[in-house]
Specification:
The protein has 389 residues and is of the alpha/beta class. It has one domain: 3-Layer(aba) Sandwich (Alkaline Phosphatase, subunit A). The chain is built from 13 helices and 16 strands. The protein has helices at 3-21, 57-66, 94-103, 124-130, 146-149, 161-169, 182-185, 193-199, 239-251, 267-272, 276-300, 361-370, 382-388; strands at residues 46-52, 78-83, 119-120, 134-142, 175-179, 202-205, 219-225, 258-264, 303-308, 312-313, 317-322, 327-331, 337-338, 342-347, 356-359, 380-381. The strands form four sheets. A ten-stranded mixed sheet has the order 6-7-5-4-8-1-9-14-2-15, sandwiched between helices. A two-stranded antiparallel sheet has the order 3-16. A two-stranded antiparallel sheet has the order 10-13. A hairpin with a 4-residue loop joins strand 11 and strand 12 (327-331). Helix 2 crosses helix 11, helix 3 packs parallel to helix 12 and helix 9 (239-251) runs parallel beside helix 11 (276-300). The protein is globular. It starts with a helix and ends with a helix.
Length: 389
């Protein structure tokens, strides 16, 4: 027999035998249904930016394992990465990370809506509101916390919660949903900002039940918790995806479109605590909110959905897991943030702009370019914001 034929036959037999001995690493699952293609118009009418605080690729895959090997994130086909470093540090905090998204400037850690020189820049949310679009913020933390605050307020340090709360009162927001009621009610200056919100046309909700009673045309200030809500695995229920849907339904009544920022806040806290199950449950909860945004965008056809993170937390790694039980074995290198790049997912008109490796400030730049917007206010001293109101 020809030696070449003998060798080829032997190689084929060896490969077949090896393949037969490799055990499956995961149970058979139904492949996620791809989102239908979008014909790109000149620009999206609506933009929904969802931020998974502390969410790196390991947090995402841990959520998949814990959710029967599937997340709504798998529906995206446009993916990229962003560099997260801040103005003064290779490792960013949430203030600098979210401010990069909101004003398109690298800034120092702990900054909220101000650049490295502490000058206050108009945020993408403020610019969108001035263009006639409706705007909203949803979070599973106090609304005065770093990430949501960076889209609304301008202060030199993230711990200035009472100043941030005051800026919410004077903001152009149509709605905001989260915690932090004590910074509006139990203030050192004695002011009742809940009453001031009502004077400015807000319906103030302090319970989830009250969300069912909001007049259709009213602005909504839903401060559902005194500070931060409980963990998802300690009784918070599914308020994040429900609040996301409520926000979309209300903001979508604006004929010019809307900008909505949604934060899955406590993925980060699970990383700080080095608690794997905390991360998994918060990741799944955030992913359900992503599903609400994607379902709307697919039906609407004029909505851009962007999902990303401000940074990764915990140096989280997967040391094992079980798809059948949903248990994840995690390992950590830190209780703090890390310097790694984080993913970006996009769907809808303009999604192709968010692929590849980019800077975190490019998120802002792409949104502004897609909407053909320019800030209507020059940078000012942060104190001047308060004096102007």
């Amino acid at each position: 027999m020809n030696m070449k034929l003998v060798f080829a036959f032997a190689c084929s037999a060896f490969l077949v035998a090896c393949k037969a001995q490799v055990p499956p690493t995961a149970p058979a699952t139904t492949a996620p249904q791809a989102l239908k293609p979008v014909a790109p118009p000149a620009s999206p009418k609506n933009i929904i930016l969802l931020i998974g605080d502390g969410m790196g690729t390991s947090q995402i895959y841990a959520g998949m394992i814990g959710n029967n090997n599937f997340l709504e994130l798998e529906r995206f086909k446009q993916l990229g990465f962003i560099k997260t470093y801040s103005f003064d540090n290779i490792i960013t905090d949430s203030g600098a990370g979210a401010t990069a998204f909101s004003i398109g400037q690298k800034t120092y850690n702990n900054a909220i809506g101000v650049a490295g020189d502490t000058l206050a820049h108009e945020t993408v949310l403020e610019t969108a509101a001035k263009s006639g679009r409706a705007t909203g913020v949803v979070a599973t933390c106090a609304v005065t916390h770093a990430t949501p605050a960076s889209f609304v307020a301008h202060v030199p340090h993230r711990e200035m919660h009472e100043d941030i709360a005051w800026e919410y009162v004077h903001s152009p927001l149509q709605l905001f949903i989260g915690g932090g009621r004590k910074y509006f009610e139990q203030r050192k200056d004695g002011r009742d900002l809940m009453a001031e919100l009502r004077m400015r046309g807000f319906y103030t909700a302090t319970t989830e039940a009250a969300l069912l009673e909001v007049p259709q045309q009213a602005r909504l200030a839903a401060l559902l918790w005194d500070d931060a809500p409980a963990k998802k695995n300690e009784g918070r229920n599914d308020i994040l995806p429900r609040a996301t849907q409520l926000a979309i339904d209300r903001l979508n009544t604006n004929e010019k479109g809307f900008f909505l920022m949604v934060e899955g806040s406590q993925i980060d806290w699970g990383g700080h605590a080095n608690e794997t199950d905390y991360i998994v449950q918060e990741m799944i909860d955030f992913d359900q909110a992503i599903g609400k945004a994607l379902d709307f965008a697919e039906k609407n056809g004029e909505t851009l959905v962007i999902v990303t993170a401000d940074h990764e937390t915990g140096g989280f790694a997967l040391a094992g897991g079980d798809f059948k039980t949903g248990k994840v074995k995690g390992a950590f290198t830190s209780t703090k943030h890390t310097a790694v790049m984080v993913p970006v997912f996009a769907y809808g008109p303009g999604a192709e702009m968010f692929t590849g490796i980019q800077e975190n400030i490019d998120i802002y730049k792409h949104i502004m370019n897609l909407w053909n917007l320019q800030p209507s206010r020059k940078p000012v001293r942060w104190e001047a914001i308060k004096r102007a109101n």
